[in-house]
Structure formats: structure tokens, C-alpha cells
Amino acid sequence: xxxxxxxxxxxxxxxxxxxxxxxxxxxxxxxxxxxxxxxxxxxxxxxxxxxxxxxxxxxxxxxxxxxxxxxxxxxxxxxxxxxxxxxxxxxxxxxxxxxxxxxxxxxxxxxxxxxxxxxxxxxxxxxxxxxxxxxxxxxxxxxxxxxxxxxxxxxxxxxxxxxxxxxxxxxxxxxxxxxxxxxxxxxxxxxxxxxxxxxxxxxxxxxxxxxxxxxxxxxxxxxxxxxxxxxxxxxxxxxxxxxxxxxxxxxxxxxxxxxxxxxxxxxxxxxxxxxxxxxxxxxxxxxxxxxxxxxxxxxxxxxxxxxxxxxxxxxxxxxxxxxxxxxxxxxxxxxxxxxxxxxxxxxxxxxxxxxxxxxxxxxxxxxxxxxxxxxxxxxxxxxxxxxxxxxxxxxxxxxxxxxxxxxxxxxxxxxxxxxxxxxxxxxxxxxxxxxxxxxxxxxxxxxxxx
Length: 450
Ligand SMILES: [Zn+2]
Hints:
14 helices; alpha/beta; single chain; Rossmann fold; 450 residues; seven-stranded mixed beta sheet; seven-stranded antiparallel beta sheet; Beta-Lactamase; binds zinc ion
């Protein structure tokens, strides 16, 4: 597995070349902004801040976490959902870096206790918006930096990794008439992104879509979906907005959640009696669990829910194997059997190439071995993330079981009989195609957190 380094320009030894970075402080007065930049550049630690952020961007981190304690400032980057520890800064340097950072983001740098929020646009191999959140902790201060692209990247079901056939099935279900489609996912597995992408995939040009949301939690508007807000902080419920909306005979009701029993009842009745369509979402680690959770949370409406729900989509994020450095291997028959793959179907599987840490890069005699670090993934073995999707179509057989025995086990058992592929089955498919590794699949499947 250890390969000799061939490329003299490879970055395994020296410092990687970082993209140029330009801070663009938000300030109405141009001269003031320029003055601020000049003042910050003069601080000795300014290059440390530039390196901290440019390095994060260059490794595709979407978050940076700084923890200030008496000893110093620890630094972590989040890449594809995994936290990586970086070399820490000592406290005097760390403090100065944070001072410059807070000044540029329009925050009060002298205040190390109160919860603060700042924004700082940057140009660094593209345009980004940094959102900086700081708050005092018992031992010091914690600073979270979110790095978001300035222009949100519009993703499609394909971008997220859904296979073509499932896309077709899902679109058919989304564009049907009198049913409830449920979108679900485990916490921290991209449900908010999935939700937007699913709504984007529905045909919003032929039919009119309406979303009912609480003013407090409402998300950014989606194209061709009319937003109807109510204000729960003022004691409002969706009752009034829903009543006036229903007068307009809407085709599709988008409900990020059902808010209360009364709203749920009204909507389900509209679906069943008036042939309207509804799309909703719920946090749950699998499609069957999402289905059972809906039925047991809303016991009074469970009969109608069983009648109305047509399908449940579920998503779990995995890291994609880096295609440049992934390592092929021949799976043995026992492994294939364990995964439920018929023998002969898959001859090559892949695993990640993770180089050993520098201190272990020595041969038997203790002489250092140079190992080529993949430039694409930086030796992580993975590059980017994709979803594993489960699409549970609620058949009459499943409905029958749900009425008498609404448990996850019973639902899964009958679903499998009619050919349903569970999240685990879909994950094995992703491993068999080399999209991800078995270890990665086991990692994301292990914690059953909802
Ligand atoms: Zn790689």
C-alpha cells in the first residue's frame, strides 16, 4: 500500500500552496472599510488569520471551530462532516488572530463573554460568506466559523447521488394527486438540503404549491412555492392562513411539519376528500421508523394517515471514496455472503487509501519512507459526500400491517416481502458500485440517532 513518492512537486513534505485570500468587511463607508483593512494588515498576526481561513477553504471545510482555554487556542476543521484537529495556536497569537477576525466581522473584540454573531465576506478561490459565532465558556471562549458559498449551489437529486430509477419513482410520487409524501432522514444527515432538493424536483410549474410555515422557523423562499406565514410568538396557529388558503383550492400543500393535531386533521381530510397532495418531513433514521413515528405521534389521525401516506423517502449521508486514490480489492465469498451479494455479481470492491501518520512512515530499519499523498483528497481517502436513499412505497400489504401492528419490525418485514430495499440494502449497493467503502457504510449506519 505504501508507494514511493515520484512527483517532486507533491505536497507531502512542504507546505501546501494556499489560494490567495481577500477579506471584504461589510461596511457602508468604503473609506472606513479600507482603513480597517490597513489597520488589520499591520498587525503581526494577520497572516496567521489568512492562513487559518485559506487553509480551511482549500481543504473544503465548511466549519472551523476555535476553542480558547488558558493553554491556547485549539483549531478544528470540519471536512465532509468529520472534525479534523489542526495544530493549535498559543494564547497570545490566538487572541490577536481573534481580535483581527472580530474587528473585520464588525464584532466587539473586547467582549469575550457575550454571545456574538458577525459576518465577513471573503474571496478565496471563489466568493464565500463567513458567519462567525462567538461565546464565552467556563474555560475561555468558543468561536464557530461557518463557511458558506456566496451563491448557494443548486443541487439536484443526481448531485446528491440518487440513482436514476429511484428518481423516476420519486418524481412520480411527488407529482401524484391525492397522497402524502414524507421526506425523512437521521439528524445531521442533510435532511434540510434533501427537503429543498425534493421540492425543487417536484413539478411546480403545472400545479400550484403552497407552504405553511411558522414565521420563527421559516426558511428561505423556494421558487414557485407560495409562502404562508403564521406567527406562533404572537399566539397564532396556522388555522386562519390555512382556511383562507383552502378557499383558493391549492393543488399541493407543503408542510415542513404538521404543527398541531387540528392542522394535521384538516390537511389529511383535504388530501383524502379533495384529492389534494401534501409533502411533509420528519426526523427519523429510516423510512419505516419515520412512518411509524408519524402514526404513533398522531394516534388520533393514524387511520387517515395510513390511508393517505403514499411513500416515505429517507436519506443517510456517506463520504464518497476519492476516485483518484481508492484501492481496489477482491471481496472474498464470506464477505459477499454477509452483505447479501450473490457470488459472481461483484468482483471488485474499493477501500479508502489513508496514509499512515508521519511518525509511522519508516521502514523496518527506521529510515523514513516518503509516501505519495493524494492531492485530490489530501490523504483523507474520501472526497465529498453523497446520500444513500431509501424509498418506501406504502402498499396495501403495508397498510394492513400498520393498522394492526404499527411497529418498525413488522413494517420492514412486510415491505421486504414486496421487494423493498432498506437503507442498509441501498448502502450495500453503494459499496458494491465503489461509491463508498464498507467501513464508511458501517460508520454511518452504526449510531441509530433520530
Ligand atoms: Zn484521494
